Every structure is written in structure tokens, then in C-alpha cells.
């Protein structure tokens, strides 16, 4: 197996045109020309498989910008099929929001379950009840307690510890508390 053309460079921008040619997929089938010209959904789906495979190769080589350019040409949204999506419910007005500040009442949607202050920086949350807060506060809480600090009735530490193992690309779990960690808000 030949070494990656990107192995000896620090940034993707340093790769010259000759090395970029090595990153192209060189295998073709008899139906590829028809597929490139076809607008039939079954042909687009087959071609998208090639694009996603190529994007995976680029990802492994560390060529993120090239990978993103390839994924822009995929006919469906690749990200819709993977991972966990998180949503927020504002504690003040119970509206759904995707931002840390509620779009309805303009209050902060993320508040620590222990101290009730706005959560910025590292936070943790329970995958069962959804409550959470500052990582340091929750670590201290769960050294002594097993139930949710909100009083919702969830046994966060036990519930999270007994969940089946999650696959890659899931949030990290702090094994000392059994609570899932989100990196930053």
C-alpha cells in the first residue's frame, strides 16, 4: 500500500496539483458514463455511493476541504442519516430552540440544574431526562447523589450507567458520574 500523499504535509493547502491527482478514484464501471449523464434517481443514488466513498477516503487522508467539496455534490443530505441531534427546550417559556438563547422569550435556554446559573463552557446532561448543567457542579452532585438535581424523579446516574454502549461519534460519557458530556455551549 502506498503512503498517503498528505502524510508528509501539515496542511491540506500545501498539497500540490500532482498529489491531488493521486487522491482521485481511478476505478470505473461500464455504466459510469451513463450515470454521469443520467438524471434517474436510481443512477444518482448509485453515483452518490461513489462520492461518499471518495469523501471517506479524503477524510482518512485529512483532506477536509476537498471532502466538503465532494459532499456538496451528493444529491441527498449525508448528515441527516448519522449521529444524535440535540434540541433545547427553554426553561422559562418551554419553547423549542436550537440556540443557547431562546428565540421566543430571549432568555438563556441552558441553565445549570444545580446552581440555576447560565451554562457556558463545558456542560453535562442526562440522556434520560435531559437535565444537566455545569460539568463541575454535576460531578460534585453525583459524588453523593444518584437522582437528578431538579427533582424530576430521574435516577440519572443509574439510568445512564445501564444504557447500552453507544456507537462511535456519540457524545463522551464521564464514567465517574455516568453523565454524557457536551463539549461547549
Automatic annotation (TrEMBL):
**Record's GO cellular component, any one?**
Seh1-associated complex
Check the UniProt entry and state the signal peptide residues, or none: none
Q: Name one GO biological process term.
A: positive regulation of TORC1 signaling
Q: Which UniProt keywords apply?
A: Repeat, WD repeat
Q: Domain of life here?
A: Eukaryota
Q: Where is the WDR59/RTC1-like RING zinc finger domain?
A: 111-159
Q: Which Pfam families match?
A: zf-RING_16 (PF17120)
Q: What is the name of the protein in this document?
A: WDR59/RTC1-like RING zinc finger domain-containing protein
What organism, scientifically named, is this protein from? Answer: Phytophthora kernoviae
**Molecular function (Gene Ontology), one example:** signaling adaptor activity
